[in-house]
Amino acid sequence: MNELTPLADRFLKACQAREILAATAESCTGGMIIAHLTDIAGSSAVVDRGFVTYSNEAKMDMLGVKAATLEAFGAVSSETALEMAAGALAHSRAAIALAVTGIAGPDGGSAEKPVGLVWFGLALKDQPAISAHRIFDNRGRDFIRRETVRHALEMGLKALAG
């Protein structure tokens, strides 16, 4: 158990209360969100699948992210996060999908897209997908990835409560 386990458990219970399945589409976290969910006994009742789409090719092949989107906006963008979330729903049995794409560092940042920038996508079945971004303090790769997991689960909880 770690500090994110209670949050992951609350997310699973919220999905269970709504009788829906969840999916994730992860880039910068490399599967950490789905790992935190499936670390909890009984998660198979609500977790459908997790897509780890680290490369642009994986985003296109597994989630249907358009090449034009990646070319115009880049992998770390609102547009890509939205397409990732929508693609996770379309390619699963889930009714909620959490998507993340960002720059966890230590390299890869720019003035426009600094290390710590993460775009989040959230899709609920029969509703338009939403996106949000955060710029986490550059306190190391582990910190950025952990905070990304936290924020994604919090977004999911907020969406399920609404």
UniProtKB/TrEMBL annotation:
Q: Which domain of life is it from?
A: Bacteria
Q: Where is the CinA C-terminal domain?
A: 6-157
Q: What is this protein called?
A: CinA family protein
